[in-house]
Write a structure and sequence with these properties.
By secondary structure, the protein is α/β, with parallel strands linked by helices. Helix content is about 15%, strand content about 40%. Strands 1, 2, 3, 4 and 5 form a 5-stranded mixed β-sheet that branches.
């Protein structure tokens, strides 16, 4: 099992670690590449509360908390489209709660 989920076309270059700011990537993968990516992600989810997603020049390590938001969206206007989105929320240290 890998310690990061790497997008298929981006495997062997030096990476910078992104931990702040805004970052967005959209990639197009084959059915087989998508399945492999999701399997690697599932392995990370089962193993720990940290996921690392990477591309050719970047990686994003992210420690998250349960629950994970899963959003399903279907639209059939001009073209039928199904969107599945996973949203991970940053794991807090719990210091904002106290008992008095």
């Amino acid at each position: 099992m890998s310690d990061r989920v790497t997008l298929p076309e981006d495997r062997d270059r030096e990476r910078r670690t992104i931990t702040d700011g805004f970052f967005e990537r959209e990639v197009y993968l084959s059915r087989e590449e998508t399945a492999a990516f999701l399997r690697e992600l599932a392995d990370q989810l089962e193993a720990d509360t940290t996921v690392t997603v990477a591309g050719s020049t970047w990686e994003i390590p992210f420690e998250y908390r349960d629950p994970i938001e899963v959003e399903i969206e279907f639209a059939s206007k001009r073209e039928r489209e199904l969107e599945i989105e996973l949203e991970f929320t940053e794991r807090g240290d719990g210091s904002d709660l106290s008992v008095r």
